[in-house]
Design brief:
The protein contains eleven helices and three strands, in the order αααβαααααββααα. The chain is mostly helical and about 270 residues long. Helix 4 runs parallel beside helix 10 and helix 10 crosses helix 11.
């Protein structure tokens, strides 16, 4: 009787394979070589200055943010002093004469007189009077074209000496101030920080200095005389006016009436 060969059985009843396979050897993957791009000549030149550009950009953004904060703050908070007041007080060796008054404590005719004297189109522009600038260019720079808004920015934030740096900052801050402040607030700031005589700043101190009255009690003639000395306060007097100041005051008084009638004072009058 034939005997079946003894075949070892696996679990599940299937025989084991008698041939054993060796361990599977994976072929090594080929390393991909990445070609490195050599920096160009321009990149080599600019590489040391990239940090300067980066920090310069961050500094610029910081200054812009700080400027917006300060402009917004002075829309509701009165500036405690200005560079012009500080430098004038230092020159005189004594504190300047300045008393802040709110817009409601200033005679309305003073607002109109200041606008008639310095910026008749104050209610019509956004900080720059393009027509006045064109006229100044055609006149060869013999006449000024600064608006009250520009003068406020210069008086509140900057300094008096002329320079391209100051002009550039003024050109940036003026439309920002126009966007964030009301026209009445701009005039309020202007009349409180403008110099009316040597060491005399603001309309309240000027009204008392020249006429012995408060800013709220100024007459049309007194307001016109104060506005007449604004371009050159150290050489003109409102209480003892020269013939030039008298003529200018009469012109300002008439201009104040005109802008009151034709609506060019509507943006700052209650």
């Amino acid at each position: 009787m034939a005997v079946a060969p003894n075949v070892p059985a696996m679990a599940g009843g299937k025989p084991k394979s008698t041939t054993q396979q060796g361990p599977r050897l994976d072929k090594p993957k080929a390393k991909r070589s990445r070609a490195r791009k050599e920096p160009g000549v321009v990149d080599k030149i600019l590489a040391p200055y990239r940090w300067l550009v980066k920090w310069g950009f961050r500094t610029g953004l910081g200054l812009v943010f700080l400027g917006l904060v300060i402009v917004g703050l002075f829309g509701v908070v009165n500036p405690p002093t200005t560079h012009t007041m500080w430098s004038e007080g230092r020159r005189l060796g004594a504190p300047v004469d300045q008393v802040w008054v709110d817009a409601d404590q200033i005679a309305p005719v003073m607002f109109r007189s200041a606008v008639a004297a310095e910026d008749a189109n104050f209610c019509l522009h956004w900080g720059f009077d393009v027509e006045a600038i064109q006229a100044a260019i055609e006149a060869g720079g013999a006449r000024g074209a600064s608006t009250i808004s520009q003068q406020v920015v210069k008086n509140v934030f900057l300094w008096q000496q002329r320079s391209w740096v100051r002009k550039g900052m003024e050109a940036v801050l003026t439309p920002v101030s126009e966007a964030m402040w009301s026209k009445r607030r701009i005039l309020e700031l202007y009349l409180n920080v403008a110099e009316f005589d040597e060491g005399v700043f603001g309309v309240q101190a000027a009204a008392r200095h020249y006429f012995g009255v408060d800013a709220s009690d100024l007459s049309a003639l007194q307001a016109a005389r104060l506005a007449a000395v604004l371009p050159s306060p150290k050489t003109r007097s409102a209480s003892n006016p020269s013939n030039f100041v008298e003529r200018r005051a009469r012109s300002i008084r008439g201009g104040a009436e005109t802008i009151n009638q034709d609506g060019r004072a509507a943006c700052f009058q209650n």
